[in-house]
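Q: What changes when pyridoxal-5'-phosphate is included in the input?
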Amino acid sequence: MATTAMQSAAESSQPSGGGTIAKALADVQARAARAAAASGWANPPRLVAVSKTKPAEALKEAYDAGQRTFGENYVQEMVDKAPQLPADIRWHFIGHLQSNKVKTVLEAVPNLAMVETVDTAKLADKLNKAIEVMKRPEPLAIMIQVNTSGEESKHGIQPGEVVALARHVHTKCPHLCLAGLMTIGQPDYSSRPENFDCLVACRAELCKDLGLPLEQIELSMGMSGDFEQAIAMGSTNIRVGSTIFGSR
Ligand SMILES: *Cc1c(COP(=O)(O)O)cnc(C)c1O
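A: The predicted holo structure follows.
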């Protein structure tokens, strides 16, 4: 991975307790707000504090500093941590979700606010059905994960298949709410703009096809190393871990 000024800044200020997480969180929020203002966006993006591998105490420090949205990428970790933390946390699932784990995560985490990583009709159907059976009062917000880099190792649907999956969710999954599109950029810094451009283009195509205003479909892109760049390109949901909680 190319070392950027941002990454080295994050690494030299690794939180070690005693308010460090709160300070790092405030720094990220300030940087995100500046990036949004510089691009003329009316609002800063939602910040998902990615807490994977970090203990519940670290999340509590961020919570006490006002953070309410947290992201985990393993079902077991979310299931373990959620009951230890306040119920008004809005959990985002950001990892690969296997169909056979859907019931587990929905039942164990009633405050699961969003699954950002739906990439098959099968998974959408599984989620939709589980919510129906559980009689969850609210629909579940989901995002479609798009493989914008074409790397085989990455999950996510191909860009050309986004519209079909979005239509499926929109018309066949009444217990899901299509909130947006999500992507994980390539670690190679220089190729990220194309990944983000691709997600922006996918949104335009899907909104045109489904007749939705652009504002209705969010873009989840940008992590510790590139969230300002992602905001400049229209990200409304950034997922930041190591810059807030320290390296893993
Ligand atoms: C770990 C992770 C992040 C956060 O990455 P950092 O570089 O630590 O900010 C964001 N999104 C996903 C999907 C992740 O798995």
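Observations recorded in class: The first helix runs from residue 5 to 12.
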